[in-house]
UniProtKB/TrEMBL annotation:
Binding-site residues, ATP: G105, E106, S107, G108, A109, G110, K111, T112
Keyword Nucleotide-binding carried by entry: yes
Organism (species): Carlito syrichta (Philippine tarsier)
Domain Myosin motor: 12-516
GO cellular component, as recorded: actin filament; cytoplasm; microvillus; myosin complex; plasma membrane
A Pfam match: Myosin_head
Phylogenetic placement of the source organism: Eukaryota, Metazoa, Chordata, Craniata, Vertebrata
InterPro entries: Kinesin_motor_dom_sf, Myosin_head_motor_dom-like, P-loop_NTPase
Name recorded for this polypeptide: Unconventional myosin-Ih
Family: Belongs to the TRAFAC class myosin-kinesin ATPase superfamily. Myosin family.
Length: 516
């Protein structure tokens, strides 16, 4: 095996299992750095692959590279994401059972790219019949569509996934890919109505404006300039040089035609997308009773047309709320402030449901109608750990999800491996590692964790506020080693935490969350 490797591939160790100082973090990072400086971005830890984002084309994803890895024993060739894909595929075929590839890492680490490389590997190397090429193309082309609606520019990544994705690729008994299924998790709806400085809304809005045909835009009542839309311009980077919205629109339009979307589907879909942009531009004023009014109903008319609702019903929904008590219904006017809230809530709900519809629609085009037994390779590509200047509920959920994935890794590798050694009576030096279960418990424990406390605050009678939630946290989890607030931090730590914030010491670093 050694003889087959070129000198370049032998830089450092290509499997961390061979590292002498295996408990030293600096030795680990040194090895990664040494290899990275030679453009070797992959290193194994046994059958786990560590990947460092090169942010440049390295020419390592060619068809000849794919062929090189095809059917070759895992450790015979230098570490590569193709070896992971090939190994899962061969094991699935020989054992006739399901396999899963879990991709995890911080935002921008390269998870989505890795999952696309794996899909491409299967598309090129798996046996294929002509009739099944359609299933393969649909599987591949569902990606640009999902990315257009579910990805956005953040400060960490120009193409950051703002939803989690689990994809099953189904294979028949001959190992031919015959279908697929996608599950999406928690699309970041808040982005539809608000973006931090330097960030954008979901790509599709900008793509539609930049690339959409003149007649389509006219039908939707839209102008080309994204700066004209409040929901697109808050991050002050609607036009971003590194992103070519016009080209991406072409890719997405082409993908739509392959994955079975009819003209009517697309007309409805973009009608809804346009209605969200119009919603964002509705302004409210206060009448002399303090109630919200809409002085300019231009946008209302467009939304009503695009969503197929009556303008007066839409207007009432945005400026009033309905209270239903047993048999009675009372309609109360809203203040302008609450109307803004209602408008944004509607935009988020409309977008969130459209995304769910889109995933379902893609799934129906990927479904394999033949009911013979299939095995699957599952791919989990989920939003990575994130920390921004301002972190809200979304970051809290995303980082909690990453804590859970870290738990899975600990359970499946460190713990399972050492239990096996113990069972088989193998002598080894136990490895100390930080078990982040304590942080998962802090978030999720029933009746005691942060989610339960938030839940209770939301449903209890009486005035619950962001502050009362924070105070409850201080009271109930204030003594936890991984929890801090300004009050609890004492004079030294006070400056770094705001009065409405709490901080969690995650396995991957500290994050300060705003309770607002
Ligand atoms: N293997 C690679 N080779 C070259 N460039 C890469 C590679 N992996 C990632 N990149 C670059 O890094 C960018 C970010 O990667 P990617 O979108 O996969 O990150 P991510 O981990 O999925 O992030 P998020 O959690 O924000 O979705 C890509 O758009 C691409 O430019």
């Amino acid at each position: 095996m050694e003889g087959a490797l070129t000198a370049r591939d032998k830089v450092g160790v290509q499997d961390f299992v061979l590292l002498d100082a295996y408990t030293s973090e600096s030795a680990f990072v040194d090895n990664l750095r040494k290899r990275f400086s030679e453009n070797l971005i992959y290193t194994y830890i046994g059958t786990l692959l560590v990947s460092v984002n090169p942010y440049q084309e390295l020419g390592i994803y060619t068809v000849s590279q794919m062929e090189l890895y095809q059917g070759v024993n895992f450790f015979e060739l230098p570490p590569h994401v193709y070896a992971i894909a090939d190994n899962a595929y061969r094991m699935m075929c020989s054992e006739l059972n399901n396999h899963f590839i879990l991709i995890s890492g911080e935002s921008g680490a390269g998870k989505t790219e890795a999952s696309k490389k794996i899909l491409q590997y299967f598309a090129v190397t798996c046996p294929m019949t002509q009739s099944l090429q359609i299933a393969r193309d649909r599987l591949l082309l569902s990606n640009p569509v999902l990315e257009a609606f579910g990805n956005a520019r953040t400060l960490r990544n120009d193409n950051s996934s703002r939803f989690g994705k689990y994809m099953d690729i189904q294979f028949d008994f001959q190992g031919i890919p015959v279908g697929g299924h996608i599950i999406s998790y928690l699309i970041e709806k808040s982005r539809v109505v608000y973006q931090n400085q330097g960030e954008r809304n979901f790509h599709i809005f900008y793509q539609l404006l930049a690339g959409g045909e003149e007649e389509r835009l006219a039908y939707l009542g839209l102008e080309r300039d994204p700066q004209l839309y409040k929901y697109l311009s808050q991050g002050h980077c609607a036009k971003e040089l590194s992103i070519n919205d016009k080209n991406d629109w072409k890719t997405v339009s082409n993908a739509f035609s392959v994955i079975d979307f009819t003209k009517a589907d697309l007309e409805n879909l973009f009608g809804i997308i346009a209605s969200v942009l119009h919603l964002g531009n509705i302004g409210f004023e206060e009448d002399d009773r303090g109630c919200a009014t809409v002085p300019d109903t231009h946008e209302i008319k467009w939304i009503a047309k695009l969503l197929g609702v009556h303008p007066s019903i839409l207007l009432e929904a945005l400026t009033h709320r309905k209270i239903e008590a047993k048999t009675e219904k009372v309609i109360c006017p809203l203040t302008p402030e609450l109307s803004v809230y209602a408008r944004d809530a509607m935009a988020k709900a409309v977008y969130g449901r459209t995304f769910t519809w889109l995933v379902n629609k893609i799934n129906s085009s990927l479904v394999n109608k033949d009911f013979t037994r299939k095995t699957v390779i599952g791919l989990l590509d989920i939003y990575g750990f994130e920390v921004f200047d301002k972190n809200g509920f979304e970051q809290f959920c995303i980082n909690y999800c990453n804590e859970k994935l870290q738990q899975l890794l600990i359970e499946r590798t460190l713990k399972a491996e050492q239990t096996e050694y113990e069972m088989e009576g193998i002598e080894w030096e136990p490895i100390q590692y930080f078990n982040n279960k304590i942080i998962c418990d802090l978030v999720e424990e029933r009746h005691k964790g942060i989610i339960s406390i938030l839940d209770e605050e939301c449903i209890r009678p009486g005035p619950a506020t962001d502050l009362s939630f924070l105070e409850k946290l201080e009271e109930k989890v204030g003594r936890h080693a991984h929890f801090q607030t300004r009050k609890l931090a004492g004079p030294k730590g006070q400056k770094r935490i705001g009065w409405m914030e709490f901080r969690l010491l995650h396995y991957a670093g500290e994050v300060t969350y705003c309770t607002k």
